[in-house]
Structure formats: C-alpha cells, structure tokens
Amino acid sequence: MVCARTASAPLLAAALVAALAVACSLVSGAHAAAEQEAAGAGGNDLRLRQPPITRGLSFDFYKRSCPMAKSIVRDFVRHAVRKDVGLAAGLLRLHFHDCFVQGCDASVLLYGSATGPGEQRAPPNLTLRPSAFKAINDIRDRLERECRGAVVSCSDILALAARDSVVATGGPEYRVPLGRRDSRRFATPQDVLSGLPAPTSAVPSLLDVFHNHSLHLDATDLIALSGGHTVGLGHCVSFEGGPDHEPRLPRQAEADVPGQGHRRAHPLDVRTPDVFDNKYYVNLVNREGPFVSDQDLFTNEATRPIVERFARSQQYFFNQFGVSMVKMGQIRVLTGDQGQVRRNCSARNPGSADGNLGLQWSSLVQTVVDAAAESLGF
C-alpha cells in the first residue's frame, strides 16, 4: 500500500492494467476454446464454412426484381406459424420431400394430369399437410401482387419458407441462395418411393440414398438434416420397431393429425415437440427416437459420435444444420431457361410442355385442376 504513494505508482498501475488485460485475454481464450471443444468444432467455425453455390444461384437474386421477396415470405410464415405451430414442420417437410425426388424444383407441388398421378399421391407424400401446400400458393399470390408479376419461383418459396419455419420455432438463421426455376414435370410414384427413404431404413441405406442424390452430402449432413424431426408429428403406422429399436413414446402424446381426420400421430420429439432445438439428439441417446431410421443414427457405431456431439451442443447442431440445408437445397436445381416460374405452384403454366409425354397443358385442363384444388381446400 505504501508503494502506491511513491513516484512509481503510475508505472505500477500501468503494469497492473496490462497484467489484468493479459489475464482477461487468457480467460477469454480459454473460454472460447472450451466452447469449441464442447461443440466438437475444433478450430473450424461452421458459421464461416459456406458450401459452394451452384452457378445461376445467388444470395441477392431478387435484389432488383423483387427486393422485398425475403421479408414477404418471412412475415407470412411467422404469422402463420403463430396461428398453427404445426405448419412449421409441414413447410420444412415439403422442402425435404421436394429436393430428394427429382431435385429442388417444386415438382412435389404439381397436381397430377392426363399423364398420371402427381407426386402428392405417392405413399410417402400422402401425409404431407394440405395446409402447407395452401401456404405456398398463398405466399406465391402475395409475392405476385408485391412484385407485379410471376417473379419468384415456387422452388425458391419452398426453400425460404423452410428456413423461416425453422427460425419461427427457435431454430438457426442461415442464408438461402436463390434463383431456382420450377420443373414442368412431376416425378413418377416409383421415383418418389426410391428417392425418399422409408422410416424403417438403417444408416447404410440412408447413406446410399444421400449419395445417389448428391456427392456433396455425407454422413454429417444426414444426421444434421434428420434433426428436422425435432418438430412435428409422426404417424403411428410409421412407428415400427426393429431389432435395436424400442422407442419409449408416451401414449398421452398421441393426438389426431390436424386436417387429416382421425389419423393418429405422436410428436417426433417427445421433449419439446414445437421447438426447433437439439432435443431430438438427446432423445436418440436415450433411445427415444421416433423411427428406426432415426434411432439407428445412434445405434450405428460410425454415426453415433456425431449424434452425441449434437446432443451435447445445440450451437454446433445449429451451425451444421444451416450448412447441410444449403447443400440439400441445391440438389439438381434448375436455373435460367431450364425451368419456369409458375404462376400457380400447383400447375404448369398454360402452354407448357408436359415432360412426361410431350403433351400440351391446355387452358381447359388448367381450369379443371384449379377447380379441383379449390374443392379440396388447397
């Protein structure tokens, strides 16, 4: 205390400040390192690891043609999810089911035609929410009014609505590259069956499906994208046990599926079914995965460490989920004149060639389809 009164006091004070700064720096660095280790990130910050963007896509694609496009989609989804939180899972699932069949081209939205039934009639798509299909068309109508024409593609709406649904339920923000075009044709029921893995699939089969769709998708992407099951409901007929799968799903969680009669369902995430978080992976660690295809991610020795890492760190899962969604959202996209911007997301533009049989989509057929859509409540 005496020294503090001597002529060297300023020097001592400066030295003390410097020492404290070094100490704070060391503590801060140690804290950051601990966070990285807990997240399993090492020195690689996933927030900075942007996947390559397909030629023809960009983050500011509508900057001039419709600068308010992103905010219009976000506002619609935010308000709609407040009224019906289940819509978030419905919109996210639409994007998944679209991209893994024929690519991210909005073909899942097309009604059938004289060439055959559309993708919606294939068994894996029968449980897609009618309210999600309606929401996409409602968003498209709002965009057409605000943008003064058919500017934003239905496939871009799907990608944006999926991201905004994740954000609306507490999930991560990530940038969505835009510029996709819509397909003029829908896939066959067999294409749907082969493109979407069954809920009874094990890890090797799931990885085969991923590799068939894109060489850029790997096991980490598979596990991260499976995290979409942290929100929404699963139909009871899909909860089929396997040799290593005995899900402990509480019967009190069983409920009717909105808009689908008395079809019974369970929350996919028994802890926080309406919140996008990492509890899905905590469930897998506790052997409470909803489907065989989920629980096997933890049962399989090769993929278990990634599941455990996501269960430990929600931030690491959020970062990886954003990266994986951007990669998935670019599967076999159409750009430029490879596709069209549909004026009705449920039907090809009048006069468009039918890619299945080369027939023309007449205005009469268009009228019939529109009438049918209205009667079905889409």
Summarize the structure.
The protein is mainly alpha-helical and 378 residues long.
Would you mind describing this structure in some detail?
The chain is mostly helical and 378 residues long. It has 13 helices and three strands, in the order ααααααααβββααααα. The chain has a three-stranded antiparallel β-sheet with strand order 1-3-2, with no helix packed on it. α9 crosses α11. Mean pLDDT is 80; it is low at 1-44, 237-262 and 355-378. Disulfide bonds join 66-147, 99-104, 154-345. The active site is at residue 97.
Number of strands: 3
Helix fraction, binned, reads 40-55%
Strand order of the largest sheet: 1-3-2
Q: Please tell me what the overall shape is.
A: globular
Q: Kindly estimate the percentage of residues that lie in beta strands according to DSSP.
A: under 5%
**Major sheet attributes:** 3 strands, antiparallel
Rg over C-alpha atoms, rounded to the nearest angstrom? 24 Å
How far apart are the first and last residues' alpha carbons, in Å?
Answer: 80 Å
Order of helices and strands: HHHHHHHHEEEHHHHH
Structural class category: mainly alpha
Mean of pLDDT: 80
Organism: Triticum turgidum subsp. durum (Durum wheat)
Catalytic activity: 2 a phenolic donor + H2O2 = 2 a phenolic radical donor + 2 H2O
Site (Transition state stabilizer): 93
Family: Belongs to the peroxidase family. Ascorbate peroxidase subfamily.
